Amino acid sequence: QVQLVESGGGLVQAGGSLRLSCAASGRTFSNYPMGWFRQAPGKERQIVATITWSGGTTYYADSMKGRFTISRDNAKNTVYLQMSSLKPEDTAVYYCATHPDLMNLRRGVVRYWGQGTQVTVSS
User: Fold this and answer.
1) Shortest CA distance to 118 belongs to which of 87, 92, 80?
2) Contact predicate 72/79, CB 8 Å
3) Are 81 and 36 in contact (CB under 8 A)?
4) Cα–Cα–Cα angle for 40, 41, 44, nearest 5°?
5) Mean pLDDT, the chain, as a whole number?
6) Longest CA span, the chain
7) In this predicted structure, what is the pLDDT of residue 30?
8) How far apart are CA 78 and CA 30, in angstroms?
9) What is the spatial distance between Cα 117 and Cα 5, in angstroms, rounded to a whole number?
10) Beta strand ranges found along the chain (DSSP E)
11) In the prediction, which pLDDT does 122 show?
């Protein structure tokens, strides 16, 4: 069992930055690839980024490339999402997630979800 708890969401103006954190507990966090997803009102949940267990390989959805950075600190059992140049269309609930298989995670097949943290970007 893995428990995921996100934090760091809030209200920010367009062009601003936020850093989300996801604290993991339970099974060995460092063995799992991790990901961030988001869901805007009235829209389907979409992938934001993933990172391998070592942190050596990252993946970003096209609209996030160059603006978002995913990272992890296995010593702290925490994964981060640094978001910059935020746009109103980035407004969503952001979820931390994991699956033992990276490709499944990228396809949106998730074993464990966090409860989500709201990010609101005002224009």
Assistant:
1) 92
2) yes
3) yes
4) 60
5) 95
6) 41
7) 77
8) 9
9) 9
10) 2-7, 10-13, 18-26, 34-39, 46-51, 58-60, 68-73, 78-83, 92-98, 112-113, 117-122
11) 97
Give me the helices (H) in 1-123, please: 102-106
Q: What is the 3-state secondary structure (H, E, C) of 91-120?
A: CEEEEEEECCCHHHHHCCCCCEECCCEEEE
Residues 91-108, mean pLDDT to the nearest whole number:
96
Q: Are strands 117-122 and 10-13 parallel, antiparallel or unpaired?
A: parallel
The length of the chain, given as a count of residues = 123
Q: Which tokens hold the place of 123? A: 């224009």
Compute the average pLDDT of residues 44-66: 95
Of the candidates 39, 17, 9, the one whose C-alpha atom is nearest the C-alpha of residue 113 is 39
Q: How many C-beta neighbours within 10 Å does residue 66 have?
A: 10
pLDDT digits (tens, 9 = 90+) for 56-81: 899 999 999 999 999 999 999 999 99
